[in-house]
Amino acid sequence: MMSPNVRKWRRFIGKAVVFLLLALGAAIYLFPFFWMLSTSLKDPTEINVYPPVWIPSKPRWSNYAEALSYFPFLRYLANTLYLVVMNLIGSLLSSSLAAYAFARLKWPGRDFWFAVLIGTMMLPGAVTMVPQFMLFRDLGWLNSYLPLIVPSFAGNAFNIFLLRQFFRTIPVDLSDCAKLDGCSEFRIFGQILIPLCKPALATIAIFSFMGTWNDYVGPLIYINDNLRYTLSYGLRAFQLKSGSIWHLTMAASIVVAIPTLAVFFAFQRYFIEGITLTGMKG
Amino acid sequence: MNGNTQMKGVVRTTRRRLRGALYGYLFIAPWLIGLFIFTLYPMILSLYYSFKNYNLANTAKWIGLTNYKILFTSDPIIPISVYNTLYYALLSVPLNMIIGILIALLMNRKMRGIRLMRTIFYLPNVVSIAAVAMLWHLIFQSNYGLLNTVLRLIGIQGPNWLTDPATAKISLVIMNCWNAGGAMVIYLAGLQGIPRIYYEAAEMDGVGPIRKFFSITLPLLSPTIFFNLIMGIIGALQTFTPALIMTEGGPINSTTFYVLALYRMAFRNTQMGYASAMAWVLLLATLLLTLLVFRMVGRKVYYEA
Question: The pTM is what?
Answer without folding.
Answer: 0.87
